[in-house]
Amino acid sequence: MLFQVGGQGTRPTFFEMSAAQQLPASLRAALTYSIGVLALRRPFLHKVLDHEDEFFSLLMLVLETHSLRITDASFAESLYGLRRRTVKIRVKKEDVRPNSGDGIQQSGLEKHQRILSVVFLVALPYLKSKLHSIYNKEREARLQASLWGNGDETVEDAEYFSGGESSLVSREVTITSRLMKKIQKIMFVCYPWLHASSEGMSFAYQLLYLLDATGFYSLGLHALGIHVCRATGQELMDTSSRISKIRSNERERLHGPPWLKALQRALLSCTYTMLDYAQTGLIAAVFFFKMMEWWYQSAEERMSAPTVYPPPPPPPAPKVAKEGIPLPPDRTICPLCSEKRANPSIVTISGFVFCYACIFKYVSQYNRCPVTLMPANVDQIRRLFHDM
């Protein structure tokens, strides 16, 4: 049994598919960074950052729907010249030799496949992001409860059993909050397994795709029965004519008085212009974000890099006081007992070395260094383990 890929286009490489899959994440990071910079001077944009998941999902919903409608490809796939094709497998078991009529036949996407593609491209990532945020909140709540104790349950129990006019309302709120907590606990237990299963399946499909063992890059494409292939030159040329045809049909379906039709045409023209330049603008935003990220990362590396300075010069030697004890010519002789040092010790305030018994007795009595006459105490005497 031999499968041959028919239809238009060729199979894209693993790196092309990986780049197309990672483009939405780069786009989201670029938009978040740009909005964060603008929010420094326009605080009302912080509301967009507070609902980042919803804002980005709405944007991707518009882009993915428009791209699948006119190019039969997702927004990221269209940038790499890729197209989605419906796979229909027909196998003849009687003849195992390659035959042009057998194998995989590809055609354009059907309406339900476009809708399901939008679900896999927009709805599932949004749901996954929300589940991840719920899991993180529950994990932080459990960590705080383990450190500080769970005081919320005590308050809720007190409100539940307290009487008064608001007892019914408080009971309803308590029951709702307890139900939500149970759902969060179930999510906390199930999410790691769901996440691990999803990542494992993605890794398995990508590995099989890399080894040419399957034509589906992901489980979603396999479930929809869709292959991703490179667009031919004729398909790229036909895209513009297809777009103009779709838009002319939309203009013909306009109804109402002339002024209303003119307004609708103006709105459609603005929408078409925004969608046409959205692709270029978003790619420019990603490029700008990557450039700024590289620039600031390089600046931080330069600032955090250790600077090699020459070793500082040694401090000047302390001056010997005129009324102090003179230093002997031999450095191994103690200035106090004029004998070879035994158990050498140093006075940290001056740096001169004496016998431990001699310097301890002198400092205890006079509270100063015998050579420099600088104030000192017995706590500033240190033992030397290598007499120089």
From TrEMBL:
Predominant cellular place of this UniProt entry's protein: membrane
InterPro entries, sorted: PEX12 (IPR017375), Pex_N (IPR006845), Znf_RING/FYVE/PHD (IPR013083)
The Pex N-terminal domain, residue ranges: 21-298
Pfam families (UniProt xref): Pex2_Pex12 (PF04757)
Entry membrane topology: Multi-pass membrane protein
Listed CDD domains: mRING_PEX12
Transmembrane segments: none
Compartment(s): Peroxisome membrane
Keyword Zinc carried by entry: yes
Keyword annotations from UniProtKB, A to Z: Membrane, Metal-binding, Peroxisome, Protein transport, Transmembrane, Transmembrane helix, Transport, Zinc, Zinc-finger
Pathway membership, UniProt: Protein modification; protein ubiquitination
Keyword Zinc tagged: yes
Stated family: Belongs to the pex2/pex10/pex12 family.
PANTHER family, per database record: PEROXISOME ASSEMBLY PROTEIN 12, PEROXISOME ASSEMBLY PROTEIN 12 PEROXIN-12
Task of the protein: Component of a retrotranslocation channel required for peroxisome organization by mediating export of the PEX5 receptor from peroxisomes to the cytosol, thereby promoting PEX5 recycling.
Protein's UniProt name: Peroxisome biogenesis protein 12
